[in-house]
Predict the 3D structure of the following.
Amino acid sequence: MNLLKKLLILSFLLTFAFPYQAFAYKVVLDAGHGGSDPGAIGINGLNEKDVNLDITQKLRDELARRGYDVVMTRTDDRYWSLAQRVEFTNSLKADLFVSVHANSHTSSKTNGSMVLYYDDAYPQEDYPASDTMKLMTPYSKDLAQHVLNSLLAASGTVNLGLVPSAVYVARMGTIPSILVETAFLSNTGDAALLADDTARTRMAIGIERGIEAYAPPVFTDTIGHWAREAILRMKNKNLIEGIGNRYEPERALTRAEFLTLMDRLFTFSKLKDPCSSSNSSTVSAAVYGCSFNNSSSATFTSNKQYKDLPATHWASPIFAKAKDLNLLQGYEDGTIRPDQSITRGEVSVLFDRLLQMAQSAAKQRPKALYPSFDDVPATLWSANAIYTLKHLGIINGTSENTFKPERTITRAEIAAMMDRYDSK
Ligand SMILES: [Zn+2]
């Protein structure tokens, strides 16, 4: 097969494997050393810091051209401490981190390229990695291998392989991270390459191709999280989505987000409010407990325009649908507060209510068992819903004996609830 054919097939496969995504991966590029720290000094007089910055800038341009969201640590000849580089990177919530360096060895014969990454199979007692980075091992290694392969192919340097390493910038972050040692400034041949603008461009292109060939893990911020499997199952069913490539599992769920998720799970347009007087449902409204009220003392006025929910708000349509089902009530001050968080007790009541609307009336509802949570007495307004959902295996306590009904529910917890419901 000729190369063109191979490339055509490859490009077809890549298109197939990575269909259009609505967000750009964010890459942090780090030019090693800088300012008062020159790094290695070349056999030809080159300063490593200058080589690193030039290759990194070329790499940034290549990635930006392909639609990546690229952020650099230092962008000029300036000193940045290692901790500064990592702190800056951690604050960016990026998808991957690549540090660019040139190497040096006491033997001028040593030449070639290598890629360093933190590997939890080779921990170094004196240089412990961050907890998150330990979990990133397979992803960092995968990135390192892709970058090494394409760097070698593009630059023609000697293959010195992957190196499990405890270098600071590769072990202290929270995302897949690598450190590329492009070539040796202490070797005549390699140093000549590093001095050559065309060769440096080839190196940048090589690193870029490796990044492009690598697929970052979905929702990097859920790696190691107890709900990751449930979150991924719900994502694969298009029931939940992230913010870019992050899910923000510990963030409080908002009322608008909750309704959006519930509409996906239960399809509001197929449901009827059994408590509506205009609804000629064959089921007695009493079955559903139409005295339903949420924890606020607000009254619901069906034809009111909420003053904090203009028609242009993204969640306006979902609140209109929810209004038809008499799901969420407005507040006495005329607001509906779409961005306010929602508590575990409120979610339980609403989820249980939707469950009743979605199920046939003939289906026997389990008898709620009281009380097993110390903080959910039978007299609590949400107790019946909480114990019913617990009995159905849809919701869990925060511990054996507590439920924390007044605590806001997290995005991880709602994904887990949806997953448990969906798997039944
Ligand atoms: Zn260096």
